[in-house]
Design brief:
Chain lengths: 411, 307
């Protein structure tokens, strides 16, 4: 599993300014939206992309079937006007299908797609006015960069001079104005995706759809383009759906992240909330790193783990007191102290800058990952005996146990 | 490796050039010892020459347009919407190669209505059948060599309907594939003998064989001229298909249009043409060399854009 690059210390995790980060579950975080800069998109073009405040989009009970695969299974999700929402999930979870249904490339067998309150199911893709950036390079090889960006305007019968001006304007936004006369194959992958972004924005789409646009790029370009997309999206105030299987990307880019699993919505929340208060074991383990430790239910909302009794925010009432459960803990929710001869043994230490990751063996088949400040970790080389303790007051449990170690005893 | 290369080149070159050289000598021979251009100069006035050439050109045009109009949308649809049908299509479209032309033609003559049998354009329809394997593979290779699905989706999301997508996005990017399909069909039609002869129409190839019995010098001259003529036609086709920007690069070696057209097939439309191998398509149409041999002294126009 990947470790998030930013420390999570509660509200506003990752250092990004989420007005809604600390207040929790504002369903549509519209308050955060900055005022639209005057003339942001194109001079003299009247309305900007998608109007002045973005277009609300809602997917209602969407179902989609391919052969005997149910790609979407009653998927519902509301996206606020001007919001950047990431659809995150493992491959095959239906996130790309959801995006393609939104774009009009796939027809759902049931459900609605409401754009600005109107159901667009049945409207062909070419009439939906949604800009899309694809995973693969999608620029038209027979056209120059400028012609690519102007293509949508040409179809809309915009005059030559005007569409040229608008296309150039967008190319300036993605910092590729000097490449306007080049052909796509003369550009790097990152440049091609920037042109694709400009092309999608040129038609002033009501909704911008991004289908893993960064996945074919190398890490450095990916990070740059990620910032680029974010700043453009904020500047243009355009409702955006971003499909990705990369949790770092989703958490660092999106206003809210929708985690999908098997064609259904698992949880939708701000990145900080998703990381700090995942609602289901699936989300907890998919986003960030999670430890599973055996624990014991003590009664409604209480659980014992690592020798402490703490609150369990999702313990179902059906779990009887005394039942064994798995407790899910982030590496930073666990601390260790040196205790020679104790049960825990440090098996490896990975230096990660300010923090270090310790793998601590509690038994032959129970490995716990712990994050410590590197200064503290330096005193605990591999082989040290340590005592493991809980550093959290509120934990997530999974009644479906996967840990079977420790002779059925909670640690 | 170098000497081997030279040796192979020499053998292959001799294989192709010696018959041509022999033919040229024969067509220029006069009274056993002298030399004369008479066979060439008198060609236009030979009985039936003009009509035979004109008929072949017409048939080539009709067969090419019909085949492309039928096959382009079919291949596109199969690739975009019915990828599972591709295997079936590959099999079905290879039937005209597997079934001997004689069998095809007997079947056709059995079922074709009288008015159609009386028209030489029955031949054009038969050529469409013969051309399907080549057109299908040329177009299929082209469509699969670009990310057609993404390009179509991108065009649609920008507001292009199906026709606009084909016209502005697909055709320009599949130019090489369409061109190589066209080249193959034209070469096929200009060299086909079996069907034309069984249908008893006087196309250019059948005229050459017929005339060979009365004046073999003239017939030989016509064969050689037809080779030149075919090149000129194909050069013209490839010039038309060439976008302005790359016309400047005319003559710069590029990838052969048809180089990737024949991944597995052996044999070819001219395989059964026996004695007429020199006309249009040479008899040895094999493997990856269809276009190369078909245009053995190929015009530079056959070098498409790298696919």
């Amino acid at each position: 599993m990947t470790v998030l690059s930013h420390p999570n210390d509660g509200a506003g995790g990752g250092g990004r300014a989420h007005a809604s980060g600390s207040t929790g579950r504002a369903p549509m975080s519209t308050a955060r939206r900055p005022a639209r800069p005057a003339g942001a998109l194109v001079p003299g073009s009247g309305a900007g992309a998608g109007g002045h405040s973005g277009t609300p989009v809602e997917m209602v009970e969407l179902s989609c079937q391919f052969g005997n695969i149910r790609a979407l299974d009653g998927f519902s999700l509301a996206i606020g006007p001007g919001e950047l929402l990431a659809l995150l999930g493992p491959s095959g979870c239906g996130k790309t299908t959801a995006l393609r249904v939104l774009a009009g490339f796939e027809a759902p067998i049931g459900g609605q797609v409401l754009v600005d309150g109107q159901d667009v199911v049945g409207v062909p893709a070419q009439k939906r006015n949604m800009g899309m950036v694809f995973q693969g390079y999608s620029l038209f090889p027979n056209m120059t960069v400028l012609e690519n960006v102007a293509f949508g305007l040409r179809l809309r019968k915009v005059g030559t001079a005007q569409r040229r001006a608008r296309a150039m304007n967008l190319l300036e936004m993605v910092e590729l104005a000097d490449r306007s006369g080049h052909y796509p194959h003369e550009l790097s992958g990152g440049q091609q995706q920037r042109v694709a972004l400009a092309r999608a924005l040129a038609i002033e789409p009501r909704v911008l759809l991004l289908d893993e646009p960064l996945s074919a790029l190398d890490a450095k370009v990916r990070a740059q383009l990620r910032e680029h997309i974010r700043s453009l999206q904020k500047r243009l105030v355009i409702t955006t759906v971003f499909v990705t299987h990369d949790q770092d990307e989703a958490l660092s880019l999106a206003d809210r992240v929708a985690v999908m699993r098997q064609g259904r919505l698992e949880q939708v929340a701000t990145p900080a909330e998703l990381y700090n208060r995942p609602e289901t074991p699936f989300v907890a383990e998919f986003v960030g790193t999670m430890n599973r430790l055996p624990g014991r239910a003590l009664g409604p909302g209480r659980v014992e783990v690592l020798g402490r009794e703490v609150e369990a925010r999702n313990l179902p009432g059906s779990v009887a007191a005394g039942a064994l459960v798995d407790v899910l803990l982030r590496p930073e929710e666990i601390t260790v102290v040196a205790a020679p001869g104790a049960r825990g043994i440090v098996s490896s230490v990975t230096f990660r800058g300010a923090q270090s990751r310790l793998d601590v063996l509690l038994s032959a088949d129970l490995l716990v990952k712990v994050d410590l400040p590197s200064s503290a970790a330096s005193a605990l080389p591999a082989g040290s005996g340590v005592e493991v303790a809980l550093a959290s007051d509120n934990v997530l449990v999974d009644p479906a146990r996967q840990t079977i170690s420790l002779a059925e005893e909670p640690v | 490796m170098r000497p081997w290369r030279a040796a192979v080149f020499a053998v292959a070159g001799a294989y192709f050039l010696l018959p041509l050289w022999a033919g040229l000598r024969f067509s220029l021979a006069y009274n056993g010892t002298g030399w004369s251009l008479e066979a060439y100069l008198g060609l236009g006035g030979q009985q039936g020459f003009g009509t035979a050439v004109w008929l072949s050109v017409q048939l080539a045009a009709v067969a090419t347009v019909t085949t492309l109009v039928l096959m382009f949308p079919t291949v596109l649809y199969v690739n975009l919407r019915l990828p599972r049908v591709r295997r079936v299509m590959e099999f079905v479209t290879s039937l005209p190669i597997v079934i001997p032309p004689v069998v095809l033609i007997i079947g056709v003559l059995d079922v074709a209505p009288g008015w159609l049998k009386a028209s030489p354009f029955l031949l054009a329809l038969e050529y469409v059948v013969l051309a399907v394997p080549f057109a299908y593979r040329a177009l299929d290779t082209g469509i699969r060599s670009i990310d057609t699905k993404t390009l179509v989706d991108a065009a649609r999301s920008l507001g292009a309907g199906p026709l606009t997508t084909v016209r502005r996005v697909l055709l320009p990017n599949l130019r090489a594939a369409v061109l190589s399909a066209t080249v193959l069909i034209v070469a096929l039609v200009l060299g086909e003998y079996t069907m034309a002869s069984l249908d008893q129409f006087s196309t250019f190839p059948t005229w050459i064989v017929l005339f060979d019995q009365s004046n073999s010098h003239v017939s030989e001259a016509a064969s050689l001229l037809s080779l030149v003529l075919t090149w000129v036609v194909l050069l013209g086709i490839s010039m038309i298909g060439r976008p302005r920007a790359s016309r400047r690069r005319f003559g710069v070696p590029g990838r052969l249009v048809g180089a990737r057209v024949w991944p597995r097939e052996t044999g070819g439309p001219a395989g059964s043409d026996g004695g007429l191998a020199r006309v249009g398509l040479p008899g040895s149409v094999d493997g990856r060399h269809v276009v190369r041999t078909g245009m053995s002294m190929g015009p530079a126009g056959l070098e498409g854009e790298p696919l």
